[in-house]
Design goal:
alpha+beta; 8-stranded mixed beta sheet; 5-stranded mixed beta sheet; 33% helix
Length: 602
């Protein structure tokens, strides 16, 4: 008889496996502990972290607390006070219900719990290390509960090695705080990191909470949304089309005050914005759906951020129409008021209406109209460049074949280009008797990238002081990020100083960026920087230089003078890598004389 090969896993191993689903990074611990505090009825929650949660995470609340037995039982797997039967899964109003979170956290960290119920003279202290119970004693503590989680993944070094930099991990923590703080405006939330207060969110309205998290500027960009039906209630805010942004940040869905992700609902929002924003733009939204718990299923993922509805189509239709109505009221989209009488409004009496007058110049001829001196110069220059572009093709037979040539960076010798601009997008010139077409935006990004890279590593950029310093209000995430990049910003020529909570004063900017709006430029740089950290793992200085180049370079559609075009090409050919942008996209293409000759011989 073969020996048995199936055996029950030990509890500590099972908890570590469960932790792999529930606890992926410090932000996962923050999410679970904040949700527990909310379920406990807390009106004030304080979150304290060290080293972006890798060293310590502490959540202190003034909720109802636990007695001695509950304090011990809460760390057992599948021990919960939220449900007692399978039917309870379809009437949930709490955040947590599985009974896995605390067991999973305790399996991969050193955890201390202090808790006391109102009316008890003393509280309870429970210590667990790596899933193993260490001690339980009476202690003196305030009403409520305090969870302290230290040395996350101390017993799984391989998992700890997968954690990102403190900046990235803290960003994820701030994301989780936002997802909890926005729907629970009646809870005072405080967040401290390494001894510094990052957030202090007093109780207030939904708009006050959004402004506290993202900045006062956002109020003018949002329109309220409200629709109440027998099936679902829709409320919150959506951005006006003119304030659409280039990425999908600040998009929040809450179902019964629980943050969720749902592609179906997201599609409904974009359907409402159809023909109002470009395909590359994205709306901000803070949308709340309230409906009977029996119509939703949240038990489909361990993190409880995915949800299913019993009637997706109805939710989709109501959400889309509610947003269209909100935008219509805000004057952002056509809207009909069905409550108005069919006669519409009465026209003013005794008012004389005149047909519009149109002035016509019968002698106007667009082919003989005098052009401005600048246009005439540009046209003359373009004609000359067209004629000179093909110079040297007659002697091409004696030179090396075009396909054997490569565009090499030029260091010492002088460069001379005959160049013209095509569609305010491309620069057309000749190089080694071949036709060279250069993408002006990508070329300038490459030039600026290498310029900024030298600045942060070797030669700091000169800063030009502003006559009137500009105050810039930031979200908590951007304020943390700009403090982390303070040295690099100084190397690039920015003179920034903290000014109160989540604000900085711009005292100076790089000398070559005086024509840019300082606040908007910095905001765009930070936005690009964050996106880069999501898409790829890029070193901090390199990322900032890429972001600077992307947001301060020449854009498509900008007419350039001949001197500017020549200077850009000369600078490009002196780059270390003129062929590609910092993102790896091609900067130029070369059309060989033999290819042109073959085409016309067909």
């Amino acid at each position: 008889m073969q020996p048995n090969i199936i055996a029950l896993l030990p509890d500590h191993v099972a908890n570590q496996i469960a932790a792999g689903e529930v606890v992926q990074r410090p932000a996962s611990v923050v999410k679970e502990l904040l949700e527990n505090a909310i379920d406990a009825g807390a009106t004030q929650i304080k979150l304290i972290v060290k080293d972006a949660g890798k060293g310590m995470i502490q959540v202190i609340d003034n909720g109802k607390g636990m007695n001695a037995l509950d304090a011990r039982m809460c760390f057992e797997r599948h021990a919960t006070s939220k449900i007692s039967s399978a039917d309870d899964l379809f009437s949930l109003t709490t955040k947590g219900f599985r009974g896995e979170a605390l067991a999973s956290i305790a399996a991969v960290a050193q955890v201390e719990l202090k808790t006391r119920q109102e009316g008890d003279e003393v509280g309870q202290q429970v210590v667990i290390e790596g899933g193993k119970f260490a001690s339980q004693n009476e202690c003196s503590t305030a009403k409520g509960t305090s969870f302290t989680v230290k040395n996350l993944f101390f017993n799984i070094p391989a998992r700890r090695n997968f954690l990102k930099s403190d900046q990235v991990e803290q960003k994820h923590i701030l994301d989780e705080i936002e997802r909890v703080a926005i729907p629970h405006t009646g809870i005072h939330i405080i967040f401290q990191s390494n001894g510094n207060e990052i957030l202090n969110l007093p109780t207030g309205s939904l708009m006050q909470r959004i402004k506290s998290l993202l900045g006062n500027y956002i109020q003018k960009e949002l329109a309220p949304i409200g629709e109440d039906t027998s099936f679902v209630k829709v409320s919150g805010y959506v951005s006006l089309p003119e304030w659409a942004i280039k990425n999908k940040k600040e998009q929040f869905f809450f179902v019964n005050n629980r943050y969720v992700r749902n592609p179906f609902l997201n599609h409904a929002i974009y359907e409402a914005y159809k023909d109002l924003i470009s395909y590359q733009s994205h709306p901000r939204y803070f949308i709340f759906l309230e409906l009977d718990p029996k119509h939703i299923d949240i038990n489909i993922h361990p993190t409880k951020t995915e949800v299913k509805f019993t009637d997706d189509k109805t939710v989709y239709m109501l959400l889309t129409s509610a947003i269209k109505r909100a935008l219509g009221k805000a004057g952002a989209a056509p809207s009909l008021d069905f409550e108005q009488e069919s006669s519409f409004s009465t026209l003013p009496e005794n008012r004389i209406y005149k047909a519009p007058e149109v002035s016509i110049n019968p002698s106007y001829n667009p082919f003989h109209a005098p052009a401005s001196p600048a246009v005439t110069t540009l046209q003359r220059s373009n004609r000359q460049n067209w004629e000179s572009m093909f110079e040297g093709f007659k002697t091409i037979e004696t030179e090396m074949p075009a396909e054997q040539k490569q565009i090499e960076p030029v260091r010492e010798e002088a460069l001379h280009f005959n160049v013209f601009q095509l569609q305010s997008r491309y620069l057309v010139s000749t190089y080694h008797s071949n036709v060279l077409i250069v993408d002006q935006q990508r070329a300038h990004e490459r030039v600026l990238y290498e310029h900024y890279l030298r600045a942060v590593n070797l030669q700091p950029v000169h800063s030009q002081q502003l006559l009137f310093p500009e105050q810039m209000e930031l979200s908590a995430k951007d304020f943390v990020l700009i403090k982390d990049l303070d040295h690099e910003f100084k190397q690039l020529g920015f003179d920034l100083a903290p000014f109160g909570k989540n604000s900085v004063v711009i005292n100076g900017v790089p000398a070559d960026l005086q024509d840019f709006k300082p606040g908007q430029t910095i905001e765009s740089i930070l936005e690009t920087f964050r996106l880069n950290t999501i898409d790829a793992k890029i070193e901090k200085r390199d990322n900032l230089c890429r972001s600077m180049a992307r947001n301060t370079g020449i854009k498509y559609g900008k007419p350039l003078e001949e001197e500017e075009m020549t200077l850009l090409l000369e600078s490009l050919f002196r780059c270390e890598n003129p062929l590609y942008t910092p993102w790896g996209k091609p900067v130029m293409m070369e059309i060989g004389y033999t290819d042109i000759e073959k085409f016309f011989k067909r």
